[in-house]
Write a structure and sequence with these properties.
4 helices
């Protein structure tokens, strides 16, 4: 009986429960990764390219879309040995120099979001070329030198000697 009560006292210590509580917390939490990035394209260009990329190139099921609010909700099935699945979203927000794009695949490792991001940027470049902000500007023609006014000649005076 003494051994049982000694075990109970040890188990009731807070530090004994800490590893189990942390493990439970880590395993029960869902991933909430977000991969935001900015591109120099318009909101319409990014929305159209993202929709075509998801539907046509990847064959994913886009179940909700809104071009005015610029978001896409889709079922993402990752190819591979396990066919991992996640609901995903792409949000497009206008910013000063183009758009901020937020890719989310909450049930998958973050490298799926990174891959989707890189592929979407490649799709944008393939469809629309380099973004306006990244295109090198045409060299400006050299400024024409301004004509300096010629000094006015001194009037000649006849017969006056200096």
């Amino acid at each position: 009986m003494a051994k049982i009560s000694e075990r109970m006292r040890k188990m009731n210590r807070p530090l004994n429960w800490l590893p189990a509580a942390l493990t439970l917390l880590v395993l029960s939490s869902s991933a909430s990764a977000r991969t935001p990035f900015e591109v120099g394209y318009t909101k319409t260009q990014v929305y159209s390219a993202a929709l075509r990329y998801l539907r046509v190139d990847l064959g994913q099921d886009v179940y909700e879309k809104d071009p005015d609010s610029a978001y896409l909700l889709f079922h993402f099935v990752a190819e591979g040995a396990e066919h991992q699945k996640s609901d995903g979203s792409i949000e497009i927000i206008s910013v000063k120099a183009g758009c901020r794009v937020v890719v989310q695949l909450p049930k998958l490792p973050s490298y799926f979001e990174q891959t989707l991001r890189e592929s979407l940027v490649a799709k944008l470049r393939g469809d629309y070329g380099a973004p306006d902000s990244a295109k090198p500007e045409a060299p400006k023609p050299p400024k024409k030198p301004e004509k300096t006014p010629e000094p006015t000649p001194k009037p000649k005076t006849e017969g006056v000697s200096e």
